[in-house]
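ok trying again, last paste got cut off:
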Amino acid sequence: MKTLTQFLILCASITLTLNSCSKKYYQCEPLAEEDSRWPYNITAEWQQENVNFDFNITSDTDQLAVDFLTPSEDSLVAQFSVGTATSLKYLQASLGDTNIILAQNQSIGGAQYPLHELVIVYYEVADSGAAVYSISQDNSGDSEDFSNFIGFTFNPLDYSLTLSEQILYNTDSTQTVTLGGTINIESTQLFSDNPVSVPLSFSQTTTTIILNPGGEYFRLTDDGSGVPDEAEGTWEVTDTSENVIKIIETYDNFETGETVTDTLSILYSLESDTLTFSQEKNPCESYADENECFEQFELNFGLAENSITDLGLTSTMAFTKSSAGKRRQLTSKQPAYWFGRSNFFKDLHSKR
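nice, full thing came through this time. structure:
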């Protein structure tokens, strides 16, 4: 089943046909460098710098769309009695019959360790509640916990949480953590019936793509799992006026055990030594119906229930040049996911 991830899953193997020329650029007759038929300037090894998702949201009410991936400019500082300290810069709030505020030392949904998270539960007025501060060293489910009833200030209009010298205790009260500071959720104002761009960014520098002069293509992604994701295929600029590149990539789907081939036509731009891929996508493509899709993204952006009336997406990926014209022997393949096995990305965009 195709998911949004496949915007950035480049797939498989064709023969590059070049009009009246040989299959390898360097075997063609010499051409002036300004000849637009030949994309000499993107023939290189490219290192991924960042990934951006620009959601175009139309809502039927004025409200804030939140970005749980962008760190707060300020931070909530946790000072431990043993002398160490940690900063929490990510915030999420769930408002309803039971109000829950979550602050973390990494993006919401992240699974890097150690994981520090503060959970505050309150019922009516946002000025006091039960708090638990947990530290997890791995994914075993075990954690070191500190708890207490604390005072705080939370403004649901601009998603800001402020604490001042609030002390939590471990289970035998031999250690403490003192919380102080302010943390915000980044947000974008939506206006009723007006489409508004709401961006999300992913910092990621672990993917390398190679565009060889002969039309060969290779990609290597290190997702931290210890098993690199590799893919190979071909590339070709099919429209030099609109800057359209077609990449066909072959990879092994680790979930199904099948070898998959896919083809994408992507807009590209080149400024100095930065190559950017861009593609318009339907974020509801993998959902059973549009209402189910809208409901999921209302949760993702902290929006009112049944308030999204239209949703679009532009995905971009930026690369910087690491070397020019480099060739690489194409080898056996591993699962080709440009985002590796990011749990957040799968939870956010895939149907299970």
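cool. DSSP finds two helices and 21 strands in the chain. Residues 1-37, 324-352 have pLDDT under 50 and may be disordered.
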